Amino acid sequence: MDDAELEAERHLVLRAQAGDRAAVGQLLTRHGPSIYRVVLLPRLGSEAAAQDALSETYAKVVERIAKFTWQNVGFYPWLRTVALRVALDHLRARKRVLLWEAEDVEREVDEANSSTPIDDKLSEHRDRNAAKKKVEDTLEKINPRYAKAIRLRVLEERPREDVAKEMGVTPATFDVLLHRAMAAMKKALHPEPGARSNAGEKEDP
Amino acid sequence: MKRERDDMPIDPDAPPSEEELAQAAELRLALEDPSRASEEAELARALSLAHAPHEIPQSVHSAIIAKNVEKMAAKSAPRGRVIRVAFGAGAAALALAAAILIWIRTNDLTPSTAPMTAPAPVLLQARSTSPLFDAPFDAQSTSARIDRIAMARSDDLRENMYASWGVK
Fold first, then answer.
1. Which pLDDT value is given to residue B1?
2. Which tens digits make up the pLDDT trace of B139-161?
């Protein structure tokens, strides 16, 4: 965002803080899709949960925008922090852990609170890559055959029969392979406390 | 040989147990039908969304914005109405009080309009204390002398106050 865009956004924020609904709408229309796609959706792992969280985020924005202090890095970092807090509440209320644990997001909220303006400027870019990297890093930790099964069937969403054929097994055997792969992935994402991180992972040479 | 779990072989293609077969079938069905509850299928969908997150549909996003911005309007509107009503009521009360005050003052002032237009009262001026004493005081008896001066000045002050108020 260049200086002119920042200045335009600052005016938009001032209008929003003065109660201009159209300005609030413009700010949310501009930044909301990124917040949904790179902050909420990866952390909450479902479209329904991410949409609920986005709505809660907007409710908090409407409630608290008067308290927002402009810091010349745009509106996105503040909106991101609000969204992270909402995501954290969702994760804490959950029984099941998917990709992100509440502690992971808690750490991100702490980092956002102590971030520098440069960190804030880079936050959108970092968010874009963070989720994908988390998945890739975890896939690196498990048996390559499990990783391949997940890549083809889950990430590329290819048909079960095609993937089974490519992996040289029957569809029924592939189902077992994928089940084992998902169990290994879960364990690699959230190792049990005190357990060594050797489960379901690559064998030693 | 490393094992993921005690019941999971390290060989990804090892023969499955009955339990594994059931869990694998459950995962397959849940991947095909998102309405079926399955922890592994949920994780699979979360992985997919994290790896390649979708855009939010524009219509869904617009609806979410509209819902929350409307809340903002709904929140600010009653406050605005309350402020307007309170201000209006306050202004009306003040106007009524002012009208009553003017009416009372007008009634009160009607008889006293004359003094306002009448010449200013003649007030007693500061003057020497000599006329108060027709005989010299004893130098040792200053209290009586001061008392007489104070009494005379007090009388003058009271007279002037009555004159100013138009009582006399």
1. 40
2. 666 677 777 778 888 888 878 87
Average pLDDT, integer, range A4-30 = 92
Give the domain range for residue A85.
3-127
In this complex, the residue of B1, B2, B65 whose CB is nearest that of residue A29 is: B65
Q: Quick one: A54 and A86 in the same domain?
A: yes
Let me know whether A110 and A155 are in one domain. Answer: no
Domain ranges of chain B: 17-74, 130-165
pLDDT (average), residues B109-115: 47
Report yes or no: B77 at the A interface, CB cutoff 8 Å.
no
Do residue A12 and residue A74 come from a single domain? yes
Instruction: Show which of residues 15-34 on chain B sit within 8 Å of chain A, judged by CB atoms.
Output: 16, 20-21, 23-25, 27-28, 31
Q: What is this model's ipTM?
A: 0.84
CA B143 to chain centre: 61
pLDDT band with cut points at 50, 70 and 90 for residue B116: very low
Does the residue A9 lie in any domain? Answer: yes
- Output the pTM of the full model: 0.67
B5 in contact with chain A, both atoms CB, cutoff 8 A: yes
Q: Which residues of A are less than 8 Å from B45 in CB distance?
A: 45-46
Q: Check CB contact under 8 Å for B53 and A131.
A: yes
Residue B37 touches partner A, C-beta closer than 8 Å: no
**Most B CBs within 10 Å, among A154, A177, A189, to test the B interface:** A154
